[in-house]
Amino acid sequence: MTPQEIEEQERKLAEKNQGLFSSTAADAGTKPIAAPKRVVTPPVQPTPAPGAQAPAVQPVKTQAAALRDIQNETTVKVLEHVQALQDAGDLKLPENYAAGNQIKLAWLNLLEVEDRSGHKALEVCTKESIANSLLEMLVKGLSIAKKQCDFIVYGNKLTLQEEYHGTIALARRMGGVVGVPTGNVIYEGDEFAYEIDPSTGRKRIIKHVQDFMNIDMNKIKGAYATLQLSDGSTHVEIMNMSQIRQAWMQGAAKGQSPAHKNFPDQMAIKTVISRGCKLFISTSDDAGLYNTLGDETADEAHSQQPGLKQPTELKKTLQIEDIPHTELKSEKTVETAQPIAKPDF
């Protein structure tokens, strides 16, 4: 090989080496730079002490699961408590009253109950108050499906409120009222007269003549209710419109609900019937709560069954205080709840 050939070969080899191990600034700018690999260091788990067990991972409960827990802890305990009272002879439920079905219907209704701020009752009310409200409904033999009662939220407490139909049911069951009370409205222009028996103090309607054209929602003078009693007598409750409106003012709606404004005649009848029924409910004994026979009173039943609890003792047993309260988390901020305004009768 000639010296020229050897020199040419060395030159080509030098150019080749320069392309492999050295680059210009322009070449460096055109080549992509690989990102450095990120090394993820796993968190260091604390080493448990010798002989100690690793902490168990608590599963997160969904709201549906929490609701099921509350339902089981309340409805089951309430039914067990009612059954225990029945077995002991301390409580008598109305005939043809299915407590299990009624408490299920009440629970479905309770899922939709809200306070004035729109918070669900099951989110803000204690389970003790929920259980006691359900228990009160069963002991009184009321049906929420028949609109005999309703659930009302006061702060963090759930309460049971008797409604118009429930008042009549209790009067028939406990107060000696027979059949369904009747009510009538007295309009301006009606011929109406009543008398008071001085020996009994009871009122008796002597005359009520009403012309069809007198019916006017703006000209109601008053209303009266007639209750037939089990002893064959009749009780008449009479209220003028001023008394009726004063009764409406005692409720949350203050007589300004749509029902009061649009149907004052029906609301007046409900008010006077409720007033008459409550008189007999409040003055009745607790015989309806006991397994008595025939016309025995609670005192007679107690004398025959020494182990039977007195009404005051029975009321004490209605308090369920052993149910722990589980808070349900809501997206809303729970403020001090106010009772919902209900139509007042």
Name the features:
345 residues, 12 helices, single chain, two-stranded antiparallel ribbon, alpha+beta, 7 strands
Textual characterization of the structure:
Mean pLDDT is 76; it is low at 20-30 and 290-345. Helix 3 (63-87) crosses helix 6 (127-140) and helix 7 runs parallel beside helix 10 (264-282). The radius of gyration is 39 Å and the shape is elongated. The termini are far apart. Among the domains are: 63-163 and 287-317, no CATH class; 176-282, no CATH class. The chain contains twelve helices and seven strands. It is an alpha+beta fold. It has a three-stranded antiparallel sheet. Strands 1-2 form a two-stranded antiparallel sheet. Strands 4-5 form a two-stranded antiparallel sheet.
Q: Summarize this, please?
A:
Helices cover 40% and strands 15% of the residues. It has 345 residues and is an alpha+beta fold. Among the domains are: 63-163 and 287-317, no CATH class; 176-282, no CATH class.
Strand content: 15-25%
Number of strands: 7
Instruction: Please tell me the overall pLDDT.
Output: 76
Give the helix/strand class.
Answer: alpha+beta
Q: Can you summarize the main beta sheet?
A: 3 strands, antiparallel
